[in-house]
Amino acid sequence: MYDAFLVLFAIENMAFLFIGTALGIVVGAIPGLTATMLIALTLPLTFHMNPVSAVTLLIGEYVGGISGGMIMAILLRMPGTPASIVTTFDGHPMAQKGFAERALALGIMASVVGGIISWGFLAGMSPALARFALKFGPWEYFTLVLMALVMLAVLSQGSMVKGLLGAALGMAFALPGIDNSIGQARLTFGYDSMLAGFGLLPVLIGAFAISQILRDSATPQTLDKMDLPQRHLPIHRSDVRFAPALLRGSVIGTWIGLLPGIGGNIAALVSYSTAKQISKEPKKFGTGHEPGVIAAESANNASIGGALIPLITMGIPGSVTEAILIGALTIHNLQPGPLLFQNAPEIAYGIIAAYLVANVLMLMLMWGLVRYIAQIVRLPRSGLMAAILVFCVTGSYAVNSSFTDVWVMISFGVIGLGLEYCRVPLGPFVIGFVLSPIAEEQLRASLMMSDGNVLEILARPYALLFLALAVATVAWPCIADRMAKHRAYSSKETS
Amino acid sequence: MDERTRRTIADIALAALTLCGAGLLLYGAMSLPPPRFEPLGSAALPRILASLLILFALIISATALFRHRQDTSIADATIPRGARADPRKGVLVLAALIAYVFALDVLRIPFTIVTPFFVTATGLAIGTRSWRNLVAFAILGLLLALAISTVLERFLYVRIG
Q1: At residue A182, what are phi and psi to the nearest 5 degrees?
Q2: Beta-carbon neighbour count of residue A208 at 10 Å?
Q3: In chain B, what are the domain boundaries?
Q4: Burial code of A421-443, b = ≥16 C-beta within 10 A, e = fewer?
Q5: What b/e readout covers A294-308, taking b as 16+ CB neighbours within 10 angstroms?
Q6: End-to-end CA separation in angstroms for chain B
Q7: Which of A123, A145, A158, A459 has the greatest number of beta carbons closer than 10 A?
Q8: Per the CB < 8 Å rule, is A218 touching B85?
Q9: How confident is the model over A71-92, as pLDDT tens digits?
């Protein structure tokens, strides 16, 4: 870990971390633009960078992007990122009462504390968890990937069937190309350009950036009058009283971040609800109550650290952003998972170190520049979108110097837009696309090892556990529904 | 057309397209060789996924039809994000994007020439149409094209267009 910090503090890596964090804050502050989109767009640039610099840039963007979302959530009640939705509940009423600076100060403080506490979990748990995951064989990996995919699909917003459909469609789009096991073309339908399959980058940029711009360009955006923060951001000694709330929000955020598919917005919501339930003044929540801002911001930032744990220890992405980070590592021939700590410790520990330093940089940047960052929202949206489209085209082209990738990107932009219109969540779609090759490879290896005997899984307790969790995740909504109906019927009978 | 009908049509269309995709997977899997060196083979995953897609498509279409007959509350439900939007703007941006890539790929027009036109067209399609904006977007496009082509050619050794 010490070596990782030494590598990170090299001028080049620190410069990329600084740029990434600053870019993340700016993009996160602009409603409609997300950290995911920024990371997808900068991914082509990392292709030409050394892996440590690439990872520091992306981690900086991730931390900055989630934190930057709070600025407009507080000042305009317009969350820059979905993770900041809950911050609007108390942050904006505080701003309306003339306490915008105080809300921003508490939000920034809570974000940093959340980040640092979740870093503690990340640094403490990851090496041990990776050593444990080394015991996993193909059956365990296959069922783990299956569990992550099913959880992500089921826990996505909206219909469970549509979440599962999204995951299956994503997996199906990953099939065309050369089948590495037998070295033969599969589902290419005679087209040579399909032999390499659909590239990860064009798919990611298309599904997220292009579809979002096409959707947002059709949606008018009106901005309320915004009072920019005027004075210094006030923090008092008495704010130490918020320490238990900060710790609670951070722990909730970290553990929710660990679960695939849940994300920072749900972490913030659970933390906020918990804070409200145990508060002596629950009625004050939603009216500009300081603990509300702390609960939301500590949890949404802590969820990043939590989500990075399964990513670097097992190669399992908890959200689309982590799926893109996996893409960044695979571009550099690095396979995230337990072997990352053995084969590329500078990357595994580099991610952990970069996460901590990115939080500190975020504190410095937000504390000093929040007043100026807030003015970014006044930039003309139309010019910004046109510029992003140019970046999308050049980014997709630059990886292979091929316009086929650009056409693939446009096609996936339209597919993403269509899926969103039909309320099929894009998260499971993209993660299905990323995880499909891993799932197939592990399943084939498992069956080869067990001579085609599927019942071999019964002799593998961890694989059985993961499979049981996947089945329970699918079955639980139906069971909960029946239980609720039964309870309602029973209460009707008694009354 | 009310929201309920629109949602039903969208779900039916989604199910139909999913069935077409499943058909394509099954058709493609037919030409793959049977397993030789390992038990699963190359065609297994396409077949499994095709079966799942067919199952999900049937559930979605059945649910949509059932809901259309039963539920009247959707008509008053929350209007989705894009409902108040002007879809023509989205179509214009998509058309501009396709024309831009066509100009670069097929017509081989230099990047620095076609990009200002694209930024101007897209900016005006999304934002307010005025002479001032036209000039501003053209300048933005030119600066962007020069900056990106410099970075691509000098540092990444990539030539576009």
Answers
A1: -120, -5
A2: 26
A3: 1-85, 86-161
A4: bbbbbbbbbbbbbbbbbbbbbbb
A5: bbbbbbbbbbbbbbb
A6: 44
A7: A145
A8: yes
A9: 878 887 777 677 777 888 888 8
